[in-house]
Amino acid sequence: MIDLMTDSRFQGLEPFESRIWLSSPTMHGDEQRWVDDAIQMNWVSTVGRNIDEIERQIAEYVGCRYAVALSAGTAALHLATKLAGERLFGQAKPNAGTLQGRKVFCSDVTFDASINPVAYEDGEAVFIDTERDTWNMDPEALRKAFEIYPDTKLIVLAHLYGTPGKMEEIRKIAKDHGALIIEDAAESLGAKYRLNGQWVETGTLGDYNCISFNGNKIITGSAGGMFLTDSREDADKVRKWSTQSREAAPWYQHEEIGYNYRISNIVAGIIRGQIPYLEEHIAQKKAIYERYKEGLKDLPLTMNPYDENNSEPNFWLSCCLIDEDAMAPMVRGEQDYLYKSESGKSSPQEILEALAAFKAEGRPVWKPMHMQPIYRTHPFITEEGNGRGKTNAYIKGSGIDVGADLFRRGLCLPSDNKMTEEQQDRIIEIIHRCFL
Ligand SMILES: Cc1ncc(COP(=O)(O)O)c(C=O)c1O
Fold this sequence. Notes:
It is a single chain. The longest helix is centred in the middle third of the chain and has 18 residues, at 278-295. The chain has two domains: 8-25 and 278-434, Aspartate Aminotransferase, domain 1, CATH 3.90.1150; 30-276, 3-Layer(aba) Sandwich (Aspartate Aminotransferase, domain 2). Helices cover 32% and strands 16% of the residues. Helix 4 links the parallel strand 2 (103-107) and strand 3 (124-128). By secondary structure, the chain is α/β, with parallel strands linked by helices. The protein binds pyridoxal-5'-phosphate. Pyridoxal-5'-phosphate binds at residues 72-74, 110-111, 113-114, 158, 184, 186-187, 212, 214, 225.
């Protein structure tokens, strides 16, 4: 544990008075107005003007025909996965998932909510390794996956930390194999991507698209999510499923399994108050990213990269990756870790501990799904092909695993858009001291 009283590296630096968060909600006042409006009008339910408004405004902003507001991004991902499953393989019985016995190619370095819906629908996630240019799904590994499992018809892809992945290539591969794409834009609302020369928003790049308004996202409703589509039929279906699949009968009549996934009009009020500030939040997050990039440029590390010509991230989280030869020893168990300090070097856990000692919140890069205990028996595909079973007592090396490498050497830096420049400078200084 880092002790600020005895560790001479941190002498003269004061802890923050109040905690600096990784990414916390930033309220502006309009949120209260729309919440109050809902209460005064007694639209305290899963119908109301706030819901209608946020659906209209987000569809307009993102550039899609329909947006269906739901209780969470996870709910949107679940219903998107179910829609894809039904389209590809037909309707399932009420007690079975639509993906029974089917493989689905999934982003590996992402939050588990992206891909858990594949399991909800009884499918098997096959994890696709990550590329180094944007830290997203590697098109090369995806090509390999189609060589190994050519019958696969569905891809679930997330844009990590608000940085668009290589969508042009991935959409082409999907098309060549007749596969559908579920786009998880939970972390990337407002990020732009140049697709075939045209700038478009993330959240319009898949066959089914999802966003999140979770408390840590670029704008928030405390919770909430949306399903985005150009298909009237899909939007209607998601609306129906999310409200317990009621039929147009005078009594409760059900032809299909339903879910209680619709958003609350109160939560929608918060989101309605946040939407006008989306661009402002993005600009603040970008300034944070640029400030870290400049302030850390003399250290042996790099920032999370993006394609400067073909994408404009929303810069939701700023991250860094320590150079291999500047990595001090660090090992992680399932729930604990050990590291050693070495002069001129550091490690993610050491930096995270130092930040925590100063009351600032960072986080390791998301642990890849193929390394998660729950998914350890699932296939993992790299540029080399099968990424499982690559270790050998008699041969050195263990094969490519970009995700594991990002997890080992990378960390997410405090990226709260309420952080002042002075506070960020102190964080930059703390990181420098870790390398002393
Ligand atoms: C990539 C990704 N997908 C899905 C989700 C789930 O969204 P929600 O928390 O709104 O259910 C999150 C974050 O929460 C996420 O970061």
